[in-house]
Amino acid sequence: xxxxxxxxxxxxxxxxxxxxxxxxxxxxxxxxxxxxxxxxxxxxxxxxxxxxxxxxxxxxxxxxxxxxxxxxxxxxxxxxxxxxxxxxxxxxxxxxxxxxxxxxxxxxxxxxxxxxxxxxxxxxxxxxxxxxxxxxxxxxxxxxxxxxxxxxxxxxxxxxxxxxxxxxxxxxxxxxxxxxxxxxxxxxxxxxxxxxxxxxxxxxxxxxxxxxxxxxxxxxxxxxxxxxxxxxxxxxxxxxxxxxxxxxxxxxxxxxxxxxxxxxxxxxxxxxxxxxxxxxxxxxxxxxxxxxxxxxxxxxxxxxxxxxxxxxxxxxxxxxxxxxxxxxxxxxxxxxxxxxxxxxxxxxxxxxxxxxxxxxxxxxxxxxxxxxxxxxxxxxx
Length: 381
Ligand code: SF4
Hints:
This protein is an alpha/beta fold. It folds into two domains: 3-254, Aldolase class I (TIM Barrel), CATH 3.20.20; 308-380, Arc Repressor Mutant, subunit A. The chain has helices at 31-47, 70-84, 103-112, 126-132, 138-150, 169-182, 199-205, 214-230, 249-255, 286-294, 308-319, 328-335, 339-352, 373-377; strands spanning 3-9, 11-12, 24-25, 55-62, 91-96, 116-122, 156-162, 186-191, 234-237, 240-242, 260-263, 268-271, 278-281, 301-305, 326-327, 357-359, 362-364. The strands form four sheets. A nine-stranded mixed sheet has the order 9-10-8-7-6-5-4-1-11, with helices on both faces. Strands 12-13-14 form a three-stranded antiparallel sheet, with no helix packed on it. Strands 15-17-16 form a three-stranded antiparallel sheet. Helix 1 runs parallel beside helix 2 (70-84), helix 2 runs parallel beside helix 3 (103-112) and helix 6 runs parallel beside helix 8 (214-230). Bound molecules: iron/sulfur cluster. Iron/sulfur cluster binds at residues 12, 15-16, 19, 21, 23, 62-64, 97, 120.
């Protein structure tokens, strides 16, 4: 079974107004000290492995991993190779934010072994970037993209957001055209979600924020699919588009419910044993996380063993997000019964309504109905 590796870096230049990820502006912990803790955790976990692993992907996410010195990133990759068998042709992705990278640092990240960059540009409109509380301008985003190309990155993903405060459908259409003109290999386009407790959510509660209505949001979603598909991108997940052969290998492991090991504060892990799988996460607080790993303790919290029914629901919940859909043979191999035996009534109803299709051994939501996926997924929970 392929295994993915994830490392969480919970530091940012400043906190964005919509963000509820585990990340904070700045850090009281020196970056080198945090990086040494992550390497220690990687060593501790590897000593408990029953079999050698052959990791296929490494993803450095956050937060803003590009705040770390290239030497720290290099140590993560070296440790992943020596302790987890990260293969020489593995996908090694690093998230980066404009304003935190230069040609020099990007070249050093590339030399260290990062071969895929996920650049969080979010918008190419300074008014919207400012509303979102982003720490960079549109010009800095374009500079970072050009610098990444110059540094040798031939696999770049750009992260974008739509349904932003005051954004019109026409403005979103213009943004898509600008991004397509840059020709990244991968585009993620998410609609803004207002998370409880964030400054944007408070502004909305106080009536100080105008958001596009549901109809405009749906139009933006449809426009995204239409424009990116016309430009040669394949919509392989609700919000993710890739040029041929450039899907994110790492993210696909999540949607296929394959194992992954997470390192760092707030990192999540999943192994498909014992029973129908186990999930756990590390403490959110970086200081607490470091205290544990430097004391020689694995920082595991909230470990849960999934029931058979929960694991079945996950197969549908994750698989139906993707254009490939649920692999019915794999489902049978995992659970010893067919998808029809588990969810016959739901499947028959959705097939008859045209909300589900069969592609060989896969069951998938038709591309034109992916916008409804959240409503459809509840049938399988
Ligand atoms: S850069 Fe990303 S992780 Fe950091 S605060 Fe902004 S949205 Fe959150």
